[in-house]
User: Fold these one by one.
Assistant:
Number 1:
Amino acid sequence: MKKFANYLTPALSVVAIAFSVAAFSTTCAATHSAPAVGQVAQMPTVAAGQPVDLTYAAEKALPSVVHIKYVQNSKVQTVEVQRDPFEDFFSDPFGGFFGRGQGQGGTRKRQVQTPRRTATGSGVIISADGYIVTNNHVVEGADELTVTLNDNKEYSARIIGNDQTTDLALIKIDGRNLPAITIANSDQVKVGEWVLAVGNPLGLNNTVTAGIISAKARTLGANGVESFIQTDAAINAGNSGGALVNTRGELVGINAMLYSQTGSYSGYGFAIPTTIMNKVVDDIKKYGSVQRAMIGISGRDVKTQVDEEKEQGNEVDYGTMEGIYVAEVVENSAAEEAGIVKGDVITEVDGQKVTKFGDLSGIIAQKRPGDKVTLTFLHNKKKHSKQVTLKNEQGTTKVVKNADLDVLGADFRPVTSAQKEQLDITYGLEVIKVNAGKMKDAGIPKGFIIQRVNDEKMESVEDLEKVVKAASRSAEPVLIVKGLFSTGKRGYYVVQLGE
């Protein structure tokens, strides 16, 4: 079983942060559990110290959690393999004398057939007409997605949109009157509150585990935007994309990963809060991509900064031990507009206290470029507040949409076998037509063979489409196109995707 994992090295131990999607095997797929949850009746108040009955929550949540099967079909790929010097010798023992044995001991290109892969994960039905939320790592790269509901009905699913930065994806099945879960405000959950994790762990469908909320606003360094709900409800491979629900069966988070020394559950799991999920879903539906707002700083928890300074023998006093130490300020950002500089400490956003970076990430992840917020910070231990306008990664407040190949104004096809042999190449995309668009503006002619764009290999039109989408959302929406002309002469162009 292959696991998606990052590693942290706190103190003396090595701890794996593993995404809880089922491992890839020779057949790889992603599975989600059936979603549902209708109107929730008012639960009776449980007296402090009394046992909690979780059967109500399980009955409400189980129909809304789905099983997702992911399939990636077999493909032919060109890979570099180590050259065997004896292979060249026996095929041409006199090659060295006649200048043909060049490259012995190096590498050579080889085409391999990748196996069909499957994996499993979970998902949560959020609307009666078939919208399902899951993790991006459960569905990314899938050629086929099959969703199985709690009543064993199967549907083909399509990806509506995804966001690597939060590890969330929105998929859809063609269904009606589906059991959509009730969504709660994750900001209102409390540490110590009972929760259930619902999903399909370890190939066991429709599984419920119980625990409490252990912490909020955790950051682990696995995703770009993190403000995880931490729970000790058991989360294992296959739980990815499943539901974390409260005692009323309401969704408070999407299970995403586990924290383990072994790769399987050993104490803590982490869920993406619904406040972030709601924003991602809304943006995907409205704009096709997530509109990410930026304060424009890099930094860390002030306590971490103080501890590091002490280890270096420095005594520092920032006026507080709670907040975000500002290590760098981005030019022309909201933070610079507020007058924040390196060494300041951000303590509040819109009156909400931020004690650690996860608090800040969670608040800003709910905002869009153009939104106004009030930043409260300490400068030389003196308190200041300033209202600012949040901007996107490109430093504007405009909507950032995923660009597609249409913006380039050109048609492409993979190079033919004859072109590969003639030009001594193994991959590339030929520009077969140039109309009005960004490529014409950059001067790229018909017949140019593109081999790399932004240092990514171009072996298929899909490769180009991925790079164009990624670049269109970046701080610098530019394509660096490298390749060669039909004569074999090499060249490169700069394609501006922005206005």
Number 2:
Amino acid sequence: MKKYLLTLAVFFLTLAAGAQRTVDGIQVMIPRQQAMQSLVSRFGEPVSEVGDKVVFNNVLFNGEQFSEANFFFDGKDRLHLIRLKNNCGSHAKAVERMDDLWKKYGELYSTTEGMNHEDGKFVVGYDKDGTRLFTIATFRNRCDLSFGPF
């Protein structure tokens, strides 16, 4: 019984911590309507809003310019994933962009790198509690920076 109560308490503390997370001033795990007000105020009108995904073009995020920003909502209609994309023109430029982002975020967070058989290395960043916070990866001629899921 004690293990069950402890597990339940940890679960709810994790949920509460996730609900209070922000990424560059964008609060995650908040209801879609509240998130959309914040996103539209910051980035203007989305270019696409289909199902659980909302897309904005040409956004400035944490001082970096991105070609596209995708915001995803979970089954409870809460913001839970942010994916920022740069179309780089070549795979070499995408890797260069990934390395630049890695250098920037690596100064703030613990990071590790891994390999994907299809497209090469990727970087994972961890929050202060050791939880995965972001991933930086290349795919063909694109560099993606993803925060979440929370």
